[in-house]
Write a structure and sequence with these properties.
Radius of gyration: 13 Å
Length: 115
């Protein structure tokens, strides 16, 4: 059974940095894509950044130039380096993996940015 485990969230001041990690376990087939989503209170879940197995990346406009997604294909880990954090980045961040057209989610990790 595929499981995703996020880590690295926390409380940081505006302008600070955090690095999120997500490790996938129980993986038998190739992970075609991994992504980070976030959900702020009272808002819908939105994709922040995604990366496919070939290495192509995409970002939401709100985080371009500040966040960087990367992936270790051998260890099935995806990272999200978040710099220049803003209070509006405060949310629960979720890891997502696509395997053979099935989507899997982690439990989420809280990121709080104080002004």
């Amino acid at each position: 059974q595929v499981q995703l485990a996020e880590s690295g969230g926390g409380l940081v001041q505006s302008g600070g940095s955090l690095r999120l990690s997500c490790e996938a376990s129980g993986v038998i087939f190739r992970i075609s894509a991994m992504a980070w989503y976030r959900q702020a209170p009272g808002k819908q879940r939105e994709m922040v950044a995604g990366i496919i197995s070939g290495g192509n990346k995409k970002y939401d406009d709100s985080v371009k130039g500040r966040f960087t997604i990367s992936r270790d294909n051998y260890r099935n880990i995806v990272y999200l380096q978040m710099n220049s954090l803003r209070p509006e980045d405060t949310a629960v961040y979720y890891c997502n993996a696509t395997i053979r057209r099935n989507e899997y989610w982690g439990q989420g990790t809280q990121v709080t940015v104080s002004a």
